[in-house]
Amino acid sequence: MIGRTVAHYRITAAIGAGGMGAVYRATDTKLGREVALKVLLPAMASRPGWLERFRREARALAALDHPGIVGVYSVEEADGINFLTMQLVEGQTLSRVIPAGGFPLERLLQIAMALADALAAAHEKGIVHRDLKPANVIIGENGRAKILDFGLAKFSQTQAPDHLDSEVSTQARTREGVVMGTEPYMSPEQISAKPLDHRTDLFSLGVMLYEMASGRRPFVGKSSAELVSSILRDTPASLIEIKGDLPEELARIIQQCLEKDPERRFRNARDLHDALASVGEEITAERRSSAALRAASGPSGAAPTTGPAIPALVAARAHWKKAAVAAALVIVAAVAVVRFREGDSRTVDSIAILPFANGDANPDTEYLADGISEGISNHLSQILSLRVMAQNSVRRYKGRSVEARTVGNELGVRAVLTGTITSRGEMVRIQVELVDVRTGAQLWGQQLTRRQAEVLELQDDIANQISGRLKLQLSGEERKQIARRDTTDQGAYQRYLKGRFYWNERTNEGYRKAIGFFREAIELDPTYARAYVGLADSIAFLEGGGLEGRNFETATGIVKKALEIDNTLGEAHASMGMLIQDRDWDLAGAEREFRKALDLAPNYATAHHWYGELLVQTGRSGEALDHYRQALEVDPLSSAIRSDLALTWFYARDYERAIAELKKTVEADPKFGHAYHHLARVYAQVGRYREAAEEHRKGWLFAGDDPTLVEQRSRGLRQAFERSGARGFWRKRLDLKLQETVRETKWAHEVALLYARLDEKDEAFGWLEKAYAGRAYDLLFLNVAPEVDSLRDDLRFRDLLRRIRSPRPGQPM
């Protein structure tokens, strides 16, 4: 072939050969560049299925654009020859440069991280190498490692014909006495001709890392049979015993890659990369500690201006471990001084996950932009030491161009995660960035590409990398919760995301659409507990639509099903508490559910909010305020929570605090109409009737009422007060409410309160009975409402309180 021109490529030299073909150096005469040509052997091209597979996978490899993978330019055919054109990299294979005793630690980590990152990029495209070995890694003249020769690569999402996989294994086993070049790096499942996925590459990389660290392979044998037996059964010798200066954590990482069971290896190459990076960061931290020790030790141990090389640090580990207690205390004190002076910029205890931007404005993927960020937030919310802003607060920033530092300062968090999602067919690409609010520095950033059907893995990867970057110390239970998946059905999860997208619209039309998607998710995965909770919440909050108002009976049954599936889901317990509180008035049972929800999900703002309402209803305003404040710590922009916090002060008769809190609410969210009516209620209670009339006017306008009618109502209230004082105001307010009640009987409770203010007790009790017959939720606040103070000595009032099972103020449940 040398000297021959194929198409417009002039072959100038042979580079190497493999089982599928030969590789040549060639000159692209059209572009004037040097390339590598991989020519498929004619015998392979003539075998059924191989040629098509060669072309299909070559096209996929050509889509890989990663500095750690030799690029494929094209797949071509000319003169009956099938070949690939590839990037030509000058250098040596890894197999030729591994030292006898292994690489120095710094170089080992550098190459290992590059290979793990490159594999992650390939795996994210659905490509598994299957022939990873030092001979298939080239170290360029610039020192960078690149993976080449995906000749045995396969798609993880499309199984190759069984005879193709089994043939490789058979070739490796049948020539006893000859240890083939690939065999020492094969995974147990590959040797056994079992189905393969991306984790086979992790095993092969583990073998390479072991060799790179120690200079020897983990599995050996005098024959092919002995080698196969060693891979299948033997535990490699401890790297710590072979190379005592190797960090224990790095030895553990390599050992995890070499687990026989794929389930016990790293979940993916990205996780492996991050684990390796953490070792490097730990060593860097020790370098800083060493500098601090020298600085604290005086002239004899002056801190260097530049840190020592990583290998030198590792060699010093044994000495540090044997140091006296006094020396250890000096290190701790020195580090403490440095951190006190400089501030520990890596300590992050709070984070906001902003809704991801829809980069290509594709309405079909809008739900993904919201859903992935919410999924990451749900994962990280399981970490008790990390305060994660509720999606209700961060959703305010959706579609806004605002700096991460501004968001962080407004929400009171230390870090902000932003992201942009773009879609191309079935693939989605996300660019994410984690920013330190105090410094504006990027803590972490990455571009990730997945199929839309793999969003579960995508958000898992991001959540895990964030927790790693923030140096969070996780308990075993927290790690378990973060790793837990509510469903493994990608289709069900896609529909769940769409359901949550429409649920967040908080409109009847949105609830109806959400119900449809949640039901589809449940059909695909009948064990998807979180989808049942979404369905129940949508039904409970939907009004009308053929469901005859709030269908609490149906919603309660659905939540019970969710709890049967997963009794550890905090959101399900919170929803159950809300339903039995609202529907059954079972406050003791609701309190048990809310407490259970908060035990399981202590950062769930909605559970704190709903529990706060119950505590107000039972006269425990001090406890209620505490839970409202905890809710606002993770959902600081929630107007609903803040206005209910204000009402807690109102029910506690601290009217000035209630007014101040409600003013903050309307200043922060002028469109939250309920806050205006709450403010009007407090103003009227303290006799500020003109201001009450004005706040009612604003509330009606923001509710969408006809502006002309709004002006008539507010003017009528002012005039009634001017003519007849307080009684005139209350009478006019009653007339207006009775007009509303003609249309909707749900206002019976408010009519009763107005009759009570007019001291017309019989009418007040008559309307209270109507509210009782309609199971009006607001009756649960009757125990603490100041408007009915004139009724409290009446036996009818005591009887009503007994029937709605509401304790007296301050009385324990």
**Shape category:** elongated
How would you name the oligomeric state of the polypeptide chains in this document?
single chain
Given as residue ranges, the uncertain stretches (5+ residues, pLDDT < 50) are 156-181, 300-346, 544-550, 806-813
Q: What is the alpha-carbon Rg in Å?
A: 34 Å
Q: Which strand-content bin applies to the residues? A: 5-15%
Query: Main β-sheet, in a few words?
Result: 6 strands, antiparallel
**What is the count of helical runs?**
34
The strand line-up of the biggest sheet is: 1-2-3-4-6-5
> Structural class of the helices, strands and pairings?
alpha+beta
Give the termini distance in whole angstroms.
Answer: 90 Å
* SS elements, strand count: 17
Task: Please provide a written account of the structure.
With 813 residues, the protein is an alpha+beta fold. The chain is built from 34 helices and 17 strands. A six-stranded antiparallel beta sheet has the order 1-2-3-4-6-5. Strands 12, 13, 14, 15, 16 and 17 form a six-stranded mixed beta sheet that branches. It is elongated, with a radius of gyration of 34 Å.
